[in-house]
Backbone:
């Protein structure tokens, strides 16, 4: 079983942190070197949206991967990965608010109401905010472990809204390849989660029945 020492884990976490910043660094580099293409706003919007979904999928994959491999240390990376999903969602939303509406919140909200695919994306972004705000040890203690877990399981719902937003955005060009890939990944991760939940429930039921059947010593 691979179990990194504290020093190895710190190096691994720092390495993953640097890797997670590369898409943002690439956008900055392309912006300064005039390589964002004919439509820079569309390039930034699509790139930041894609990476939001990538990091949501990676974050959701942590628990199934931990259960398959027994690498419990993976849980210590989940918060960082989830916050990077929020970081790229903020970049995606800021691009929409800044370049499409020049920080005119009223016009932005009109656009949110008028265009369903933006409505769904906006709802997904808003739902990510409490997840990001409660990603601290202090908030886990305040909410309690079970309530915190239930809250953060809503990331599955957020991912589905994000994929629907992506699907509707691609509907005009009839290009559904990426939304289908994202949807398949999230569905598979959800099925794995359901499988482990049912298996744990079955094990607990079997253990309870065993205790009830086992005679107590006189």
Residues:
């Amino acid at each position: 079983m691979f179990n990194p020492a504290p020093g190895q884990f710190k190096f691994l976490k720092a390495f993953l942190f640097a890797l997670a910043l590369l898409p943002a660094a690439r956008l900055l580099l392309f912006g300064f070197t005039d390589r964002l293409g004919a439509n820079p706003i569309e390039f930034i919007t699509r790139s930041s949206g894609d990476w939001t979904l990538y990091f949501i999928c990676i974050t959701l994959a942590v628990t199934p991967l931990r259960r398959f491999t027994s690498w419990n240390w993976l849980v210590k990376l989940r918060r960082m990965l989830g916050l990077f999903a929020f970081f790229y969602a903020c970049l995606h939303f800021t691009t929409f608010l800044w370049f499409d509406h020049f920080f005119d919140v009223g016009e932005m909200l009109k656009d949110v109401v008028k265009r369903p695919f933006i409505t769904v994306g906006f709802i997904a972004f808003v739902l990510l905010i409490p997840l990001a705000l409660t990603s601290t040890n202090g908030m886990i203690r305040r909410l309690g472990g079970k309530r915190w877990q239930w809250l953060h399981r809503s990331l599955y719902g957020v991912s589905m809204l994000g994929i629907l937003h992506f699907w509707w955005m691609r509907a005009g060009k009839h290009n559904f390849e990426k939304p289908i890939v994202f949807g398949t990944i999230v569905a598979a991760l959800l099925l794995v989660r359901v499988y482990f939940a049912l298996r744990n429930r079955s094990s607990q039921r079997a253990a309870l029945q065993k205790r009830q059947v086992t005679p107590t010593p006189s």
